[in-house]
Amino acid sequence: MNAEQVTDIPEFDEWAVRRAMRRAVWRGLLRTAAIVTAALTSLMVLVTLVSFGVSGVRGRSFFGFAYYGTRLAHPELEMKQDGNCCAAGPLFGLTNLGLANEMTLRFRPLGALNHVGTTTVVVEGDVSGEIHASIDSSDTPLIGGLARGRPTLSATAAYLQKLPEPMIASALIEFDGPLSVEAYELFFDKYVSVFEVPNRSAPVFLSDPYHEGTGIGVPVSWSSTGFGELREWAAGLSSADDAQLNRIGAPSSDVIKKAADAGMVYAFVVPRMPLSLARTLVATTGVRSVNVLDTAFDQDWQTRRG
């Protein structure tokens, strides 16, 4: 082989080798960073999807107990939801996988005084699913009336006769026997006029309000005769939910389901009515008792005409 045919071997370039090695290292680092970033992104997407899924399932269950359950447990309070439900915690619940929930409720006692102020309570559901709320309604007209027990019609009539005319009252009106929704609405429209009671959303009891001989610790009540939501929620209850219902102060699942399915009205509450209407109801056929819950002077009396 001739010397001219031998390819020249370039001299060793240390700087070129170092540059190549640096480029290789950087390419490796960038590739690793890209893989790690993609993995973290996928993990975050997965966590987000799982959180939303868990939050949706847990949120529906929480809403039922926190809203419907609390309403059943506290017929003495007018209740409204304040804000949204349900995921709680940093980053809209992502940090606890959507397991924690909360709902803000506003309460106002039903009664003749027409309480203007409301009490705000946050109902919380922890990651274990237990619901906690601190609602003190022991000193309310309806709770006081139920604690006194069922009065006789003659005793209520005598009490009403002693009250001065420019007063209004709240009362629990109990029927001789349970009425269907249709019969109750006919009674309500006939004897409780719009002029005397403009607010037509009277809370009703779907079981004996004094629960005598029923073995039921808490009577079943609802904010109106629209039982659709109650029935839909009650259909999904089981004995496994009784501990949760007990924590809230609501009746057991079996009691709720039976009352919701039957849909009979045992009694209703009129939060504000003139004494003349209370006296009329005491004398009305089909009424078993009229329990006056509280009274207040009617300041509108001084400007009333006719």
UniProtKB/TrEMBL annotation:
Keywords: Membrane, Transmembrane, Transmembrane helix. It comes from Catellatospora methionotrophica. This is Uncharacterized protein. The chain crosses the membrane at residues 28-52.
